[in-house]
Amino acid sequence: MSNEGKVALVTGGARGIGAAIAAKLAALGHPVVVADVLEEREATAEAIRAAGGKARAIALDVADDAAVAALPAALGDWWGQLGVLVNNAGISPKGPDGRRRPIREMPAEEWRRVLAVNLTGAFLVSQACIPPLRARGWGRIIMLTSQAARAKSQIAGAHYTAAKSGLMGFARSLATELGPDGITVNSIAPGRIDTPMARGAAAGANDAFAANIPLGRLGTPGDVAEVAAFLASEAAGYLTGATIDVGGGSYMP
Ligand code: NAD
């Protein structure tokens, strides 16, 4: 089966890591759906088409039950060809100085929103996508977790760390449940990747982090996209429930 028949849905695909994954999968022949809350999704999809790929942009808030329930209609004739889901949408709110808020100052509303987007959003979208993947007896689900879920983080907030840790547990459950259907579920745990999200951190935070990366630099969205492309491929067919650290060695178990 060629990649042409495997539509890839990338949540949070408008920019950063998601945009790089969408572009890479499109370059490999997958028709790609760039799903995002940001208008930028249209330009991202257009850039993929300009490069010779197939792409559609759809408005999607992964935390909105009704919007997720409308995914089959939003994808139209592509829904039945869904083969790859990349749960990439995420937020990492910080305090006004770009530093993580101490737990004692964290508004409950901010906690709830991060859990809703980073964890419940992945649940909602994964659940919605199970029927077409099961029907074809083949699928790839990829979660973007974080180094914050692998070791202590001095940059991300407690809500982010909790949500990403939960996402890893959810991925294990999903991998166990969907294995018999030919669907693999794997996680990528990026270290520090140079994206709009990472650039929102306090001055000096990224340089300080980079100083402790064995490979000597922050990651690029393309570094993560290469690993996502492998996880989406036939070659990764016997890999499920795994977490791959993509951080230049910044985290080593
Ligand atoms: P980013 O902020 O640059 O991009 C995230 C994208 O997700 C944006 O396009 C945003 O609009 C979209 N998004 C946010 N909320 C959404 C929602 N409710 N519904 C749909 N789309 C939504 O961030 P990034 O750095 O590219 O991060 C991508 C993923 O990788 C995130 O899950 C993030 O937590 C994870 N991650 C990033 C880093 C890093 O260093 N950049 C490290 C570890 C993990």
Main traits of this protein?
binds nicotinamide-adenine-dinucleotide, single chain, alpha/beta, 7 strands, 9 helices, 253 residues, Rossmann fold, 15% strand, oxidoreductase activity, globular, seven-stranded parallel beta sheet
The overall pLDDT average reads: 97
What is the 3D shape? globular
Largest beta-sheet characterization: 7 strands, parallel
| Elements, N to C (H/E) | EHEHEHHEHEHEHHHE
| Secondary structure: number of strands | 7
CATH topology: Rossmann fold
CATH superfamily label? NAD(P)-binding Rossmann-like Domain
Number of domains: 1
CATH architecture, by name, is 3-Layer(aba) Sandwich
Please work out how many helical segments DSSP would assign. Answer: 9
CATH top level class name: Alpha Beta
Query: Which spans have pLDDT < 50 for at least 5 consecutive residues?
Result: none
How does the helix and strand content classify structurally?
alpha/beta
Describe the structure.
This protein has 253 residues and is of the alpha/beta class. The chain has helices at residues 16-27, 40-50, 65-69, 71-75, 108-136, 158-178, 196-199, 205-210, 221-232, and strands at 7-11, 32-36, 55-59, 82-87, 139-144, 183-190, 243-246. It is globular and about 45 Å long. The protein binds nicotinamide-adenine-dinucleotide. This is 3-oxoacyl-[acyl-carrier protein] reductase. Belongs to the short-chain dehydrogenases/reductases (SDR) family.
